[in-house]
Amino acid sequence: MTAWEKRYATRARGMVASEIRELLKLLDQPDIISFAGGIPDPALFPVPAIESAHRRILSDPARAAVALQYSPSEGYRPLRQWIADYMTTLGAPCTGEQILITSGSQQALDFIAKLFIGAGDTVLVARPTYLGALQAMSAYEPVYAPLPRRGDNQRRSLPPSAGRFALAYVMPSFANPTGTSLDIADRAALLEATAALDVPVVEDAAYEALRYDGAPRPALIALDAARTGGIDEGHVLYCGTFSKTVVPGLRLGWVAAPLPVIRRLVLIKQASDLHTPTLSQMVMHEVVQEVLPAHVAPIRAAYRARRDAMLKALAAEMPAGVEWTKPEGGMFVWVTLPAHIDAAALLRRAISDARVAFVPGRAFHADGTGANTLRLSFSRADEAMIGEGIARLAALLRATSSNPP
Ligand SMILES: Cc1ncc(COP(=O)(O)O)c(C=O)c1O
Predict the structure, then answer these.
(1) If you measure from the C-alpha of residue 130 to the centroid of ligand 1, how many angstroms do you get, rounded to a whole number?
(2) Suppose 238 and one of 123, 214, 221, 278 were both cysteines; which one would form an S-S bond, judging by CB atoms 3.0 to 4.6 Å apart?
(3) What is the mean pLDDT of residues 118-134?
(4) Crossing angle of helices 104-116 and 131-138, rounded to 10°
């Protein structure tokens, strides 16, 4: 048997399957209530619109020939234009030329990391932050340092070893995993601090449209465009996705960014997979025109009810010493346990004894801290299951406090 491990490039060392992922594979068992996967509820997918768009495109020979053919790396022009119009409604006026369509926003994160991060460069991230972004960026061997927060003296708060600043990665609205958002003053301070450090900002807006209460807050790219005169003059790379408002399975996301950056990302796209599937893009273009934004209202209503059920159950059931966030949108509540409880050990007992699951929080921390934290997702379970699952978890925590694992 070949000794494969020693043949891999050094950057592959960081690419390890987590033990948690292995545990989470057990979650298909029907009696487990899972708050683990942060995925949309398929009952909310606009299946008839997707089905009829496929039929319309494929039953027209001229359109079928386009849909099933290779196409430009930048993306399907009408969909790029639709996205540019959407970005303009967000306050970031742009043209289709400033949009690259990617295979989900996950691919955008990978491409941006590939373009900007050299080994040893510093990437600024929140702690905790999106695990998938850490996975995408870690392949390019950065070191991580904390994102500037309002009032920080950023230079002084960074380790002296910090190399070139490659990127700052941020989810301003309803972050994964915490559910929290930056207020307007935080957003302005972040833009100012990153401009002073001369570091581009990756704005991951995956959950942006899923606001359940509170007033909308401007996207970073919009604030930056207003500050500088346009997105070409600014330093924000915006990653959007159709995964949370339409479906994730068509794998469609985008980057809106200054034109020179888009041109470079197009070269990376070409080398990686030539283009995002043409048929998916054409179908999405029809579907968004037909069902958005009306389709987002029922999605928001369903998730809002589940968020409310989870917050109510947590307040009613959790023992003293447990704290949690109160998100205004998105799919997640972030729980902090008393310092002595290890959430990974708790998950084993939660699955075997209480038949309830969550994601332990350590993996979301670039610095390996956060052992006493966990992420709960409310997107998949109905309100009754949420109440039952939180009651089971709270009972386990009470038992754990008197009998630690
Ligand atoms: C914060 C965040 N960014 C990006 C993604 C990637 O989404 P997609 O590749 O489906 O657009 C996810 C997926 O859950 C996410 O939570």
Answers:
(1) 8
(2) 221
(3) 95
(4) 40
Q: How far is the CA of 340 from the centre of ligand 1 (A)?
A: 31
Dmax (CA) of the chain: 69
Eight-class DSSP state of 353 = I
In 10 A of CB 59, how many CB atoms? 9
Spatial contact of 275 and 73, defined as CB atoms under 8 Å apart: yes
Which of 83, 105, 174 most suits a substitution to test ligand 1, by most atoms within 8 Å of the C-beta?
A: 105
**Ligand 1 centroid vs 315 CA: distance in angstroms?**
29
Q: Are 351 and 32 in contact (CB under 8 A)?
A: yes
77-105 mean pLDDT: 98
Give first-to-last CA distance, the chain, whole Å.
39
Query: How far apart (Å, rounded) are the C-alpha atoms in residues 77 and 247?
Result: 20
CA–centroid distance, 106 to ligand 1, in Å, is 6
- Residues 1-19 have pLDDT tens digits of 789 989 999 888 777 776 6
Angle (CA) 209-179-99 rounded to 5° is: 40
- Among 249, 220, 270, smallest CA distance to 100 is for 270
> Could you tell me if 118 and 271 are in contact, meaning their C-beta atoms sit under 8 angstroms apart?
no
Q: Which of 93, 183, 179, 106 is nearest to 137 (CA)?
A: 106
Taking CB atoms within 8 Å and a gap of at least 24, the contacts of 141-148 are 141/10, 141/11, 141/14, 141/117, 142/117, 142/166, 144/366, 144/367, 147/190, 148/124, 148/189, 148/190, 148/193, 148/194, 148/197
Cα 245 to the center of its chain, rounded Å: 13
Task: Give the DSSP letter of residue 43.
Answer: G
Which residue reads 């447990």 in tokens? 322
Query: Is the predicted pLDDT of residue 141 greater than 80, yes or no?
Result: yes
Q: Which tokens go with 382?
A: 């109905």
Q: Which residues line ligand 1 (CB under 6 A)?
A: 38, 104-106, 130, 132, 171, 176, 204, 206, 241, 243, 248, 253
**Which of 361, 355, 349 has its CA nearest to residue 389?**
355
